[in-house]
Specification:
Structural class: alpha+beta
Bound molecules: 2-(butylsulfanyl)adenosine
Shape: globular
Helix content: 25-40%
Largest sheet: 7 strands, antiparallel
Number of helices: 13
Strand content: 25-35%
Number of strands: 22
Length: about 475
């Protein structure tokens, strides 16, 4: 028994360590195979000695039964929001008003990315994660502990002497993971989430943590609530402590001596905002010296020591040349707008999703329309709206086809689904998609089997299924 207890402890420690190297530092020291071996050993030992299972064992991330409703968590220190600014002049005004309030007291700034996710708060007591809550109304949020525990980069325990550590940040879905998740949703005939933020919020609202565990969520921390037994002189010192505790922090931040540096940091962040794994909708400017926060205080909703600077969403105007219908790997028919190519957020846009027929009808998008396109939450380009004043009168409304554009099979809806589908398993468009899927990097990774090769294989009849 003693031996088992000892070994369980060792395994938990080792797995926590490797977990952190893998998920936070991205520098794993052991292979997935070796990790799985340790994990299996722990699972087996815990099965033999259920009384030795601790709630923060790495095997206990995914809870058992779904909840019937969320309980509430009270935020002892309210979760506030930030006032937004939109122009560089407003950022200078911030500096002026801070100097008015602080007189001659010297201070510096930190500029961080504003992560476009869902705000949350983690509470650790004696180093153990006890609750995770959403912001809610700021003083009371939903208890999403079971869901947040499934996020691998959130440590279930941290090394600290502090009795209470409440840290705050954002849950998000990485942009790349969102694209793959959307593809999965579409393949299952579900109406996909419009952007990573919605996907994150929708996932956190799930009552069944086993479903949440399948969603590619991640979390980044940048702030704190109650801290008993820990304190910091400056925000950048706090950010370093977050890292030491094992949290994911913003990958880049700037400490700035004055407002000119702040503006330069805001500009630099704007040029690199698309390079982050998560979406960024602005910069957050914070006074670095924590001792000044009490003097500065806050308004009803937001502190005076921090402001958000919002970047304008990148939009472009173009003409819808055509609306085509794409047949997915599982036969789902999706309308796609083919606009005059334009540059947006660093890439040339040749196609834009229209989600589904309802979306087209709601926005009244017609072929020939001048439209605004935006990378919906930056990731997938989407048609935002029609510029109706620019209509010439010869634009043609779109109707979903009654048959599959690739094989002519009647398009049908499955019960409970919103999408139209082609149910013909021999449909060539589906075969091409399936071959492409099989060859994709996260599948068999066959480099030479791209779109064109897949099309030609199906067209010539050389291969129509993965077995071929
Ligand atoms: S600091 C007292 N830092 O943006 C509030 N917030 O619009 C302190 N956000 O409520 C918040 N990235 O949910 C802070 N680096 C960052 C942030 C950030 C995203 C969110 C947060 C906040 C909202 C304000």
């Amino acid at each position: 028994m003693k031996q088992a207890e000892q070994r369980i402890l060792e395994l938990c420690k080792a797995l926590d360590h490797h977990n952190r190297l893998y998920y936070i530092e991205a520098t794993p020291e052991i292979s997935d195979f070796e990790y799985d071996k340790l994990y299996r050993e722990l699972v087996d030992l815990e099965a033999e000695h259920p009384e030795l299972v601790t709630p923060d064992s790495p095997t206990q991330r995914v809870g058992g039964e779904p909840l019937t409703a969320f309980e509430h968590v009270a935020h002892a220190v309210p979760m506030m929001s930030l006032d937004n600014t939109y122009t560089r002049d407003e950022v200078r005004d911030l500096d002026t008003s801070l100097r008015k309030l602080l007189g001659d007291t010297p201070f510096t700034y930190v500029v961080e990315p504003k992560v476009d996710g869902v705000a949350f708060s983690l509470r650790y007591e004696d180093g153990h994660l006890v609750t995770a809550g959403t912001r809610g109304d700021g003083t009371r949020g939903d208890d999403v502990t079971a869901n947040v525990r499934t996020i691998n980069s959130v440590p279930l325990r941290i090394e600290t002497d502090a009795e209470v550590v409440e840290v705050r940040g954002e849950v998000y879905m990485p942009k790349a993971a969102f694209l793959a998740f959307t593809e999965r949703q579409v393949a299952e005939g579900k109406d996909p989430f419009k952007n990573p933020r919605n996907a994150t919020a929708g996932s956190l609202k799930q009552l069944d943590p086993r479903i949440v565990a399948t969603r590619p969520l991640d979390a980044v921390l940048y702030g704190h609530g109650q801290l008993d037994g820990a304190g910091f002189d400056s925000h950048d010192q706090f950010l370093r402590q977050l890292k030491t505790w094992g949290f994911r922090t913003v990958p880049r931040y700037w400490t700035c001596a004055g407002i000119d540096d702040v503006l330069a940091a805001i500009d630099e962040l704007e040029t690199m905002r698309h390079d982050f794994p998560f979406e960024i909708d602005g910069a957050v400017v914070k006074v670095n010296e924590v001792e000044l926060y009490a003097t500065l205080g806050s308004t009803a909703k937001s502190p005076r020591w921090a402001k958000a600077f919002k970047y304008p969403p990148e939009q472009a105007e173009t003409t819808v040349r055509e609306i085509t219908v794409q047949v997915g790997r599982t036969g789902v028919l999706t309308p796609v707008a083919e606009p005059e190519p334009v540059f947006l957020s660093g890439s040339e846009i040749k196609r834009a999703t229209l989600h589904n027929a309802d979306d087209i009808e709601r926005k009244d998008i017609r072929v020939g329309d001048r439209v605004l396109i935006e990378k919906a939450g930056e990731v997938i380009p989407a048609v935002i709206c029609v510029i109706k004043e620019k209509r010439a009168g010869n634009e043609t409304p779109f109707k979903m086809p009654e048959v599959c554009p690739a094989c002519g099979e009647a398009a049908t809806k499955r019960e409970g689904e919103v999408a139209l589908r082609c149910e013909n398993l021999q449909c060539p468009a589906q075969s091409v998609r399936l071959l492409r899927h099989l060859a994709a990097r996260n599948c068999l990774d066959i480099e030479a089997l791209g779109d064109i090769v897949a099309e030609k294989l199906v067209e010539s009849g050389l291969a129509t299924s993965p077995l071929d």
